[in-house]
Design brief:
By secondary structure, the protein is mostly beta strands. Helix content is 13%, strand content 37%.
């Protein structure tokens, strides 16, 4: 009950009692002065009491209503300002919860990204997951606190449970990314030592390790290590020769066949990770600057050889093998703009990422007979027009990924995940905003 209701009740109770003797006497005297006495005196007294009660109630209601009304506002004359141009406000940029540094897909629908996200005034390294091909994301870890956010990292998963974060150090998870264990391999953690490539397939994971030394007194070898995906027991692969510094070292896996590039002279392949076969690379001796390759199927492999560079570009030659690397056919030269970053293959396309003053993705949809050019502009994200490209690859014949600027952790605001859903004909930015 409100205070006003309590006040009204008290008034009603006060006014609902018997008519006082004094009131009866005054009323009888007034009536006897000009009119004969009658027996209606009690009735008239009751009527008068009712009238008095109604008047009291009305007064209280009016008082209550007046307290609920706002005070009067004096009229103010406001001059009309002169018309002036109103600038159109710039809409604020949409906040991105995670700046993706590296991406991996274990199926067309299920993928994971590692990246940087603000933690107060600092940046935290975090992991997110999608189960609908990048349309929606959820957090896996709130903060990978044991891994430095100041370094560049690559992420790979073999399945839903087993994955690796590689860079100057190597970490493994066997519970879907919730916990991580550091893996000790020679020279990792020392100046110059790093994992240059890592891929997994058919129950095994392979890593190319740069065993550099701090003083650079001797050429540093690149050594291929392997482990079963469910354990942390790594050993050097005996049947793959060590590569040398200053050349390319990559791993590509397609349809269960593992391909390993050691330098620019030999390409190794294996179906089980134990028995290996090697064949010479088709690149001319003069074209050994930034060689890259991508396995398209179990028998088809694409190789791009980097020639000498110039301001803004580099000569490139490209080759395709359809018999598992036994022989190669030279195809049309890719465009000269840009230095080779990475190459990738799918059953229907070959792709090359290039950078030099601008960023490009060159794609062939006819076995290398011609090349289509995708020039990355600011519409793909801030600084996308001149940014390193990494993680170029195809999950299926139609779905592929690439990371923009992910290997420059000092500028996380420029990180961007691009995806193609039409085999490389078009690429679109994907916002990673986990819930």
């Amino acid at each position: 009950m409100t205070p006003e209701e309590r006040e009204l009740k008290r008034a009603l109770e006060a006014r609902s009692g018997e008519v006082t003797p004094q009131f009866r006497a005054r009323l009888s005297s007034a009536l006897s002065e000009g009119r004969p006495a009658s027996n209606f005196l009690p009735a008239l007294a009751a009527v008068a009491a009712v009238v008095l009660l109604l008047v009291s109630v009305g007064v209280l209601l009016l008082a209550r209503q007046s307290r609920n009304q706002p005070p009067p506002v004096a009229a103010v004359s406001t001059p009309t300002p002169a018309a002036s141009p109103v600038p159109t406000p710039t809409p604020p940029s949409k906040a991105v919860a995670l700046h993706p540094e590296s991406v991996t897909f274990i199926s067309p629908e299920v993928g994971l990204v590692i990246g940087l996200s603000p933690c107060g005034s600092a940046q935290c390294l975090r992991l997110a997951k999608t189960v609908d091909a990048g349309l929606h994301w959820t957090w896996v870890t709130a903060n990978l606190s044991g891994i430095s956010p100041a370094e560049a990292w690559r992420l790979r998963f073999a399945d839903a449970e087993n994955g690796w974060i590689s860079g100057p150090l190597l970490f493994a998870t066997h519970d879907g990314g919730r916990t991580w264990t550091r893996i000790a391999l020679p020279h990792l953690g020392s100046p110059g030592g790093s994992v240059s490539a890592l891929e997994a397939a058919d129950g095994y994971v392979f890593a190319e390790v740069d065993e550099d030394n701090a003083l650079h007194t001797v050429p540093s070898p690149f050594v291929l290590f392997s482990s079963s995906v469910s354990s942390n027991s790594w050993t050097a692969v005996a049947n793959v020769a060590h590569g040398s510094a200053g050349s390319s070292h990559e791993i590509s896996i397609a349809q269960g066949i593992i391909w390993v590039l050691q330098g620019s002279s030999r390409l190794y392949k294996s179906s089980d990770g134990v028995s290996w076969h090697s064949a010479p690379m088709p690149c001319p001796a003069s074209d050994s600057f930034g060689t890259s390759f991508g396995a398209a199927t179990s028998s088809r492999v694409f190789i791009v050889c980097g020639g000498s560079g110039y301001a803004g570009g580099q000569g490139k030659t490209a080759y395709v093998s359809s018999n598992g690397g036994a022989s190669y056919q030279q195809v049309a030269d890719p465009p000269m703009q840009g230095q080779i970053e990475e190459a990738a293959g799918s059953p229907t396309a070959f792709a090359i990422a290039a950078l030099s003053g601008a960023s490009w993705i060159y794609t062939s949809f006819n076995d290398g007979h011609s090349w289509a050019t995708t020039t990355l502009t600011e519409t793909f994200g801030p600084s996308a027009s001149d940014a390193p490209l990494s993680d170029l690859g195809f999950t299926t014949a139609t779905q592929g990924v690439v990371i923009v600027d992910g290997q420059l952790p000092a500028y996380p605001q420029y990180f961007q995940l691009l995806m193609t859903r039409d085999g490389g004909h078009t690429w679109k930015a994907v916002v990673v905003s986990p819930s």
